[in-house]
């Protein structure tokens, strides 16, 4: 599998698995990122990883803004909804949960961008897109950068690094280095 093929297919092998160039030779310059390394590259990468979403939600809950990522996720799921009846039900659920003035988890979107209940009768997959984009940008330019500096992120990153490089392996490597470099 060449790197360009992997990109096109959205297939990224785990670190350590070889990626070959178009001639079938190992491509050492490209290594797929995973976990916190991938999360740190973009909010999009974070939101594509279930563990990343879990950690981000945990962080947002502490900041009292978990509704933002929940709304974003609900909109992503809504786009996949098939059938007018199911769309109407999900659209109403999203509206009542996140957008109405009586919403239990109201998101902070611009007033004129709010939808009226009448639009719920004729739903379409992208009906929440403008609002979803607002919330995405709010997360991207506000909470995401704080998340990357948070204890939740940093502790997860540290535990990932310890799994990849257990202390006994580091010690053995140091011992070997001392033995062979004397």
UniProtKB/TrEMBL annotation:
Residues 42-153 form the RGS domain. GO terms for biological process: regulation of G protein-coupled receptor signaling pathway. The keyword Transferase does not apply. Gene3D superfamilies: 1.10.196.10, Regulator of G-protein Signalling 4, domain 2. One of its GO terms (cellular component) is nucleus. SUPFAM superfamilies: Regulator of G-protein signaling, RGS. Residues 158-182 are annotated as: Disordered. It comes from the Eukaryota. One of its GO terms (molecular function) is GTPase activator activity. Keywords: GTPase activation. This is RGS10 protein. It comes from Chloropsis cyanopogon. The gene is Rgs10.
């Amino acid at each position: 599998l060449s790197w360009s093929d992997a990109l096109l297919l959205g297939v990224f092998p785990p670190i350590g698995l070889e990626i070959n160039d178009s001639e079938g030779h190992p491509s050492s310059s490209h290594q797929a990122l995973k976990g916190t390394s991938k999360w740190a590259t973009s909010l999009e990468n974070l939101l594509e990883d279930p563990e990343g979403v879990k950690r981000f939600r945990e962080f947002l809950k502490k900041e009292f803004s978990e509704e933002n990522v929940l709304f974003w996720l609900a909109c992503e799921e809504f786009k996949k909804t098939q059938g007018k009846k199911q769309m109407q039900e999900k659209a109403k659920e999203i509206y009542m949960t996140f957008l109405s003035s009586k919403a239990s988890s109201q998101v902070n979107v611009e007033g004129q961008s709010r939808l009226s209940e009448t639009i719920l009768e004729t739903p379409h997959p992208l009906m929440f897109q403008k609002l979803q984009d607002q919330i995405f940008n709010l997360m991207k330019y506000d909470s995401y950068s704080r998340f990357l500096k948070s204890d939740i992120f940093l502790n997860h990153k540290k535990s990932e690094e310890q799994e990849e490089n257990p202390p006994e392996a580091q010690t053995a490597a140091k011992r070997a280095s001392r033995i062979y470099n004397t």
